[in-house]
Specification:
The protein is an alpha/beta fold. Helices cover about 40% and strands about 15% of the residues. It has twelve helices and eight strands. An eight-stranded parallel barrel has the order 1-2-3-4-5-6-7-8, surrounded by five helices. Helix 1 crosses helix 12 and helix 5 crosses helix 7. The protein is globular and about 45 Å long. The structure holds 2-phosphoglycolic acid. 2-phosphoglycolic acid binds next to strand 8.
């Protein structure tokens, strides 16, 4: 049985007091947390320790980061390693978000090294793929996403790819209010699962969680989550509003 996951990607938002009250607010709602569900809070590095303290005794809540370096340690001023993340209780790390690809020039091959390092260090990567509007208009989204998967993930051994969660985030839907339709999301999620099946076999492909991200909110989450191959969501803007995030968790 694959896991169902709602992950909040806070991006570069919140001060420490705001982070603390957001977590408190989310935990104050009545949350439907059945055993197959997981909630991940992917918070800025500076709040990992604090948020860890707030959620450590809350079942099904897990700590996430938004990036890590691809080397183990060393002279990389300003960077954070995967081992540093696990040492403060982090379990998940977002890798390959389109904002990292776009603003920090992170390539498929660099992202493959990050995924590798994350897994070796005991983190579960949430690996993001997705096409720009231009690519979709040229109807090349299937090939685009296939290339992202091949160049970053498909060199992993079976035991390692098992640790990966994939997030399909069409770039044109991130922070724009535009959402992929249910059928656009389902078609891409099916495509991703098929590619994993061809590479690693059916059993493994059925066990990988594939999340949808891109303007996911309380009004569209139930329909998106009802799609056969959508196993949850990676939530940006709506994860910063306690009531909205709680409602999205409850619609999974
Ligand atoms: P959004 O962001 O929900 O604000 O569109 C999603 C993401 O960037 O992960």
């Amino acid at each position: 049985m694959r896991k169902k996951i709602v992950a909040g990607n806070w991006k570069m938002n919140c001060t420490l007091p705001e982070a603390e009250s957001l977590v408190e607010e989310i935990l104050g709602f009545r949350l439907d947390l059945s055993p197959e569900k997981e909630v991940v809070l992917a918070v800025p590095f500076t709040y990992l320790t604090q948020v860890q303290k707030s959620i450590q005794n809350v079942p099904r809540f897990h700590l996430g980061a938004q990036n890590c370096h691809h080397e183990k340690f060393g002279a990389f001023t300003g960077e954070i390693s995967a081992t540093m993340l696990t040492s403060v209780g982090t379990e998940y790390v977002i890798i390959g978000h389109s904002e990292r690809r776009q603003y920090f020039q992170e390539s498929n091959s660099l992202l493959g090294s990050k995924v590798n390092m994350a897994i070796q260090s005991g983190l579960q990567p949430i690996f993001c793929v997705g096409e720009s509007l231009q690519i979709r208009q040229m109807e090349q989204q299937m090939d685009w996403v296939e290339r992202q998967l091949r160049e970053s993930l498909f060199c992993l051994e079976e035991d390692h790819i098992r640790q990966v969660v994939i997030a399909y985030e069409p770039v044109w839907a991130i922070g724009t209010g535009l959402t992929a339709s249910n059928s656009q999301a389902q078609t891409m999620h099916r495509h991703i699962r098929n590619l994993i099946e061809i590479q690693y076999g059916k059993r493994l492909s059925e066990n990988i969680s594939i999340l949808y991200g891109g303007s996911c909110k309380p009004s569209n989450a139930p329909e998106l989550f009802a799609c056969e191959d959508v196993d949850g969501g990676l939530i940006g803007g709506a994860s910063l509003i306690g009531a909205d995030f709680a409602s999205i968790i409850n619609s999974l």
